[in-house]
Each structure stands twice: as structure tokens, then as C-alpha cells.
UniProtKB/TrEMBL annotation:
The keyword DNA-binding applies. GO terms for molecular function: DNA binding. Residues 6-66 form the HTH tetR-type domain. It holds the Pfam family TetR_N. This is TetR family transcriptional regulator. InterPro entries: Homeodomain-like_sf, HTH-type_Tx_Regulator, HTH_TetR, TetR_C_Firmicutes.
Length: 191
């Protein structure tokens, strides 16, 4: 039964994927999605609340589950490489998803996912922040890095910036593992 449910969700998602490459998100109807999947409209609502539910499912199946495997196997150093690779591999599709606006947009879902990922890493591994920076919480640091990473990834995808996933991942791995503040040499007080 569970396999049939997954298969139906995958068929609906495939139909949506084909449509979004040709039609703007706001013009895609549930009927168009179900017609493409060869199912009736009520079937869609057994699996998804709305079109935004498909975005959640895509993020879950195509990115989150793959990254969870890395985390379960303590391979966190490869997380951002995998994230960049997933998005880069199907760039035209993700570009269309990033154009969707609204409170449950792909961009918002991706931001939340990246925040949770970075916050997880900050909780799993100790921070190297100097004692005078104790006012910065893990939450504020995670938000700081999330804004940079999420926006940079979106920019690279939506503006067709040529990059190798490995290059982008190495930059962000470096920035996350080495606080920006650790890169700056402050002059001695009183000079």
C-alpha cells in the first residue's frame, strides 16, 4: 500500500515537473497535474494539500533525504557539495521553482531547510567564537550563514551563474567552518 502511495505521489510530481518547465506556477491547475499523471482530481488531494505540497515533497525526496543519509553516516563535510550538486544537476527545473512567490514558496522552504541544517551542525560541533562574542547565539549565527548561503544558491541558479558544485560547496564549507570574524585581524586597543 505504501509503495502505491509513493508511486502516485511520484506520478503527480513528475506531471508537475513537466508542467513547470512550460507554464508559470500560478497558471498550473490541479486538473492539469492530475491529467498529466493519469489520475482523478480527488487523488491529488489524498496526497497533497495544494501545489505547494508538491514543492515540499520535491525538497524532501530530492534533497533532504539524500542529505539525511550523509548525516546518519557522519559525512557532514559533504552536505553542501551534495546540496549544490542536486540543484545544479537539474538547474532549469530549480530555476522555475525559485521563481515561485508566496509564503510556502520553494525559496522559503529551502531557506528553512538550510537554516535547520546549519543549526544542526552548530549544535553538533563546538563553535570557535571568542569569548567576547558570547552574545551571538547559535540561532543568530545560523540565520546569518543561512541568509548568505540560501541567497547565493538562489542567485547562482536564477542568474545562470556558471559554477561547479564543488567550488561553491568548498567556499561555504570554509565560511561555515571558519567564522568570518576569525578571518579579520583587529588592531590592538588604544592605538
Amino acid at each position: 500500500m505504501e509503495n502505491k502511495k509513493e508511486l502516485t505521489k511520484d506520478l503527480l510530481t513528475l506531471s508537475f515537473r513537466e508542467l513547470i518547465l512550460k507554464i508559470p506556477f500560478d497558471k498550473i491547475t490541479i486538473k492539469m497535474i492530475t491529467d498529466g499523471a493519469g489520475v482523478i482530481r480527488p487523488t491529488f488531494y489524498k496526497h497533497f494539500q495544494d501545489k505547494y505540497g508538491i514543492l515540499e515533497y520535491i525538497l524532501q525526496k530530492e534533497i533532504r533525504e539524500k542529505i539525511d543519509v550523509l548525516i546518519e553516516n557522519h559525512l557532514e563535510n559533504d552536505i553542501f557539495l551534495l546540496l549544490c550538486s542536486c540543484l545544479s544537476k537539474d538547474r532549469a527545473f530549480y530555476k522555475k521553482l525559485y521563481l515561485i512567490e508566496g509564503p510556502n514558496s520553494f525559496e522559503e522552504q529551502m531557506f528553512q531547510f538550510i537554516y535547520e541544517l546549519i543549526f544542526f551542525l552548530f549544535n553538533k560541533y563546538p563553535l570557535k567564537a571568542p569569548s567576547r562574542l558570547k552574545i551571538l547565539t547559535k540561532e543568530s549565527l545560523a540565520r546569518f550563514y543561512t541568509f548568505g548561503l540560501a541567497d547565493s544558491i538562489k542567485y547562482a541558479i536564477t542568474h545562470d551563474v556558471a559554477y561547479e558544485p564543488k567550488e561553491l560547496a568548498e567556499v561555504y564549507d570554509y565560511l561555515i567552518h571558519n567564522s568570518v570574524l576569525d578571518l579579520v585581524e583587529y588592531p590592538a586597543q588604544g592605538n
